[in-house]
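Researcher: Go.
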Amino acid sequence: MLHGVATLMARSLRMEANWLRAHLFRLVFVFFIYFMMLLAQVSSLTKGAPGLDFFTQMLWLNGMFITLGGISFFATAITEEKEESTIGLLMMAGISPVGLLLGKSTSRMIQAVLLLAVQFPFTLLAITLGGVMLNQVLAAYASLLAYIIMLANVALLASVVSQRSGTAMALTVLFLIAYSFLPAIGPAITSVLVSEGMLSGQGTEWLAQGLTWLSESSVWSVLFYRIPNSQFSDAIIGPQVISNLVAAVFCFLLSWLLFTSFALVEDAPTVSRGLLFRRSGKVRWLSASRAWSNPFLWKEYYFLAGGDGLLFLKFVLYGALLPILLGFHVWLQKYNNSSYSDPYADTPQLHLGIMIAAVIIEASIYASRVFHDEIRGQTMVSLLTLPRSIAEISYSKVVGCALGLVPALVWIMIDIVAFLPKGISTLGEILVNPQFWVMSLVGLVFLHLVVLLSLFVKWGALPLAFLCTMMSFQCCPLLAVGFMFAGETDELARAIVIGILWVMHAVSGFVFQMMIHARLYELGSK
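Model: Structure:
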């Protein structure tokens, strides 16, 4: 039964050890940490305890990097084999289900742990910079290690029960949302249920204990609130570490139990149809229309962005979120007897922030998958034999994906024009603010990096692009200058800074697009 348990895992680790790019990536990560440490050393000349700032930045960087890696790196462990129809061949080669799970998921988890281990000695230098104790560093890395193990196995479970990588990534995102926000909003929901008489005293006590346990098991509350505290005196192995490890073991065993039922099924579809149906029946309007004059734009709009049906659904859901947030804000204020804020003024701002986050997330996903089907199906060679240029094909696919952002962008405009106090004048203030163009430049670089890296790696383009963007943001002084001039009243100074940022937009966009063009040409020539 356990024949070949470690075979695939050993092979995966040997291959990873022979890849030069894996070692280069770890080396670049160390250089980035070293640069952050130098910045902390320089800041020690003007303020005390720079080690705490360096340590806090490291926690934020690792937390975000691990989370993004869990979505794109861990969640595709089994689904990529389903999509390539190779699970049956692996089973015929004598690899057992547990061996396949260890080889495809645990080996990736070990790679992530190695990336965490290589930075540990540098983080210890935060102690010498001041403001951090040894037990804080050890507790932080124990929490990150437990979080990696839990997230890898949660994503593994999602990958086992899903037929496509997109579905597994979506399930992982839903888990992360619940894991991150439920402990924060749980007490408010409990107070509402008690006030409405839907919970008894015993039920309230039980629910409060459960929410307290969830809060203690959340890596975010531990890393960003408890550990960086100068009064930290908790144990290195706390409730969060134990609960995350228990959850990881449970998810791995459940994945093993469900593997035969969900993985050994008929082949997964090679290309997703999105929210599309056949042109018959009552849901005919959700089907794809006739191909447009530009078939590349049509294909991405319907098969990646989801077409008319998904756009309509997103527009309705984004709009329904506004009254839900307003009602929740009113309830929270009523049952907490608070009058410090106006829900009718604060809710549109919160909705605007959520819509901006939705645009960023959707654009990141589209950027990582715009050439995904062609790379996976090895159809790039055939695609480039068509009488269309690489630029025309690429821009058409990008525009088709960009149409999927229309619902969120429309609600952003509605929030700004209709609900914010200054209305449309707020839009003008945003456009003349250098800080807006700094963030626009960061977003431009990030999305281009995601597209470029997706042409080199099968998975992990999002976390890699995030890390590279963070490095460029830290190393580029012009971006810091843009933030410095955010509140500048001199219009000439702001215009000069904005002009420089426009030039950086043009240059960086041109360079990245030439690199993407060259990579596409190389893939099409193989």
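Model: The longest helix spans residues 491-525.
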